[in-house]
Structure formats: structure tokens, C-alpha cells
User: Fold this.
Amino acid sequence: MSTDIRRIDLTRDYEAHREEYRQAIEAVCREAAFSGGKYADAFDREFAAYVGTPYACGVNNGTSALHLAMLALGVGPGDEVIVPANTYIATAWGVSYTGAVPVFVDCTADTWELDTSLLERSVTPRTKGILGVHLYGQPFDYAGAREVADRHGLFVAEDCAQAHGARFGGRNVGTLGDVACFSFYPGKNLYAFGEGGSVTCKEEAYYRHMTRLKNQGCDVAYHHDEIGYNYRLEGLQGAVLSVSLRYLPRWTARRQEIGRRYEREIVNPLIQMQAHPAGTEPVYHLFVVQMEERDRFIRYMAEAGVECHRHYPVPCHLQKAYAHLGHRRGDCPNAERLADRCVTLPLFPEMREEEVARVIELCNRFR
Ligand SMILES: Cc1ncc(COP(=O)(O)O)c(C=O)c1O
Assistant:
């Protein structure tokens, strides 16, 4: 069985911009600016300008970004941080690495994002903040989260790993919360040729603290003021990301074009799509749909040469790693239902019109 349409194909980007990427990599090698350094710093400045925040702290991946963000916000043992049950597990890791406990909250039945109407009942005297996720590129209800946070003196942090360039109420994600975490894992809307991440923030103190923590706890070389980490962004990744960042607005527009076309033209009562509330501008990182016969659909698409995927088959609260928290099926029914029914259709900026049309046609023919 050959795959004619892959869920994502990064080789097309490399082929289209090969010379620019090679020159960027060559410049880093010539100067041996490999760990942090000039190219990583330049990317931080460019990314901060793109997001619209004073600071961007480049790190070695999005999971480290989440960990540093939690540390900067003072999260530690004995604390609780509210996170959605429907997310990639790394959101929860960021909390767990500090010794705090992630408190999982269900998603809504239609947006599949954090249900902010459930937040109030999850707040306890131990709650330190809310870590929301703009999952699949769709902004979560930031205003709803902020309202609860303000009432209880909590922080709101954003996990923007899947949402570079998305907007909520006319504002870019990454500028909304106290801190915001990005991933540049290959396949993300903006991606490194390896691993990368960033934390954006407005507070200089957070930025300085995270810069020290990612750099082995040093402000001055070999003077370790606190226990730190090696979470630096590599120079090669910074240089590659600076090239890609120039194309991100174009890639985002193309993702939106394909996503909106799927939404308009896939008409099949068996397939349910994600709702996009007014005032949100999604960037279609993943085009996830729900259906009863998910496995049969994935087989049907594979037989037709189209690769689909599942994001994510097990919600966070039911992962074995969190068995000690004592969750059961039924605790987050919307997230569980989604995990059982989700399918991700191919969507990436370099998709050709005939590939988009083929996916639509197959979806519409599925019975
Ligand atoms: C929502 C979310 N949060 C965090 C991460 C972690 O990022 P990384 O893989 O760069 O560590 C990812 C991506 O994998 C993600 O999708």
C-alpha cells in the first residue's frame, strides 16, 4: 500500500528554500557559534518581534520551555497548576518537573479546548495558576481563564506549541498570559531542524531568571547562583529558525486557506469538526475531526493512499504516568470521547491543490 498524500511532508519546505537554509547553517559552522551565541540570540530578538513581546528566551525544546516557565512563575512542590486533559503530555510534564501537581480539566464538547466554565471548581488553596493550551492551533478561551485567575490571584500561562501566529480577541497568542511557551519541534508551524523552543514574556525579571536557569544557573560563567539546567537553544537551530520565520506568515495563510476549505467542503454527517468561537483566529496546526468509526476511516484513507493520524488517543488524566493521581474514565468525558474518536487529516503549507481536493473527496465519500 503506497502513501500518496502524507499527513505532513517537511521535505518540500527544504527543497523550496534549500539555498537559504544551507547558507544559514554554513554561517554558524564558519563561526562555530554552536551553543547559544549570536544566531540563537538573533532568533530570540526576531521571534519576540514576531510575537509582539519584549522578551523571547530560546531553549532546547518546548518541554524545557514549559519547565522554565513554571519555575519562573514560582511553581514548586505542594503547588497545583490547572491544565487541560486534552493536550500533548508535555504540557503536564512542565508542571510535574517542578514537583507540583497538574490538575486536569475537561475540554468543551465543541471547541475541544479547555472548558473554562469548569475552572472555578478546580481551584484549591494550593492552586498557583492555569496553564492553558491553544491546541491544534485554536486559541483557548483566554478571557474566561483570566477572569477566574484574577478572582483567585493565579497566573495564566499559555502553551503555544501548536499555535504560532494564532490570535485571540485581536491579540497574538504568546502576548496574552504571564508567560507563553513555544515548541519548534519538526512539524510545528515554525520548526527547527532538530529541537527548539522559546518562552515569551513581558516581565524582564522572568526573562532574566529563565536565561540564568537555562544556562546552568549562571549569570557569570562558572558562578552558579542556583541549580540550573542545560536548556540552551543551539546556534544551528537559531539560524534555521531565522530563515523559517520569514516564511511563517505565508505558511500560516496557506494553512488557514486549506483549513477553511476543509471546513467548507467536507460535508459528511459522520464527520464532526472543531468549533472556532468568534474572536479567535486559528492557525490550523492540526486538522482534527471526530467520528464514530475512527479506525475504519483511517484504514479507508490508508487504502486510498492518504495518511491520517490520531492526536491524541489517550487523554492526559488516563495516562499510566499519572495513575497515582487516581483518575478514572468518566472524569473528563469530552476529552475521553475525543480521544476515542479523533482523526487528524493531512494539512501542511506545501500541500498541493489536487491533494487537498483528494482528501475532501475521500472524506465526502466515506459511508
Ligand atoms: C501542546 C504541546 N506542548 C508541548 C510540546 C512539547 O514540545 P517539544 O516537543 O518541543 O518538547 C508539544 C510538542 O510536542 C505540544 O504539542
